[in-house]
Amino acid sequence: MDLQITTLTGVKRVRTEFVGMDNKRCLIIKFPDESKWGRLKDAIFKDNTMVVRYILEDDIGEIIAFKVKVLLVTTAPTDLIFTSFPTAIQSHDLRAEPRAQTSIAVKLTDAQTNEPLCHCVIIDISSNGCRVSIDKKVLVGTPAMRQVIKMHLSAASDKSIELEGTIMSTKVDEVFRYFGIKFDTPKSEVKQLLKDMMVVTA
User: Fold this and answer.
1) pTM, whole model, 2 decimals?
2) Which residues in 17-144 belong to E strands, given as ranges?
3) Domain 2-93 maps to which CATH number in 3.40.50.1000, 3.40.50.300, 2.30.110.10, 3.40.50.1360?
4) How far apart are CA 128 and CA 135, in angstroms?
5) CATH superfamily name and code, 100-196
6) Residue 36: its H or E element
7) What is the per-residue pLDDT across 57-105, written as a single tens digit (0 to 9) for each?
């Protein structure tokens, strides 16, 4: 997470880690590394306020921000900041175009060789790109970063639905592997396909 604090020389933004929270009583944040960000103890102290920002890009493409008051700074057993619980949160969409949440089965193949890669599910989509999830237990072929792939979508009609795209990002959790795909298919064609599939992305 990103902390915006006011020092003697002006406003400073530093990065640190979220540790946890005690219900709605307080947030617990790791004190930023002063060897990396410089002296901060004259800015992060009891009763001072700071702005906290966190990017939810992998999930919904959004940044959230809120203001909190420092309740306590500890140095033992480790350097931690205890803050008030936010009473209001602001959010801002990072994506130029909103994505629709979906659950569309799709098969990925290599665009050059037509070699099958894997079956997966599109979990969100827009005319610019999509994000797919793959169960790690059934993953056979793993797409590589910057690999150009073809997406063969399942549809209720007999019409063949195919998109081409490039793997731009990847993420793994305990169950799934996620891939962010940027469409190489012309935007007008993608919009028509989404319309045919009755997927509205605004």
Assistant:
1) 0.55
2) 18-22, 26-30, 49-55, 62-74, 80-83, 90-93, 100-110, 116-125, 129-135
3) 2.30.110.10
4) 24
5) predicted glycosyltransferase like domains (2.40.10.220)
6) helix 34-37
7) 554 567 788 999 999 999 999 999 999 999 888 876 556 566 778 888 8
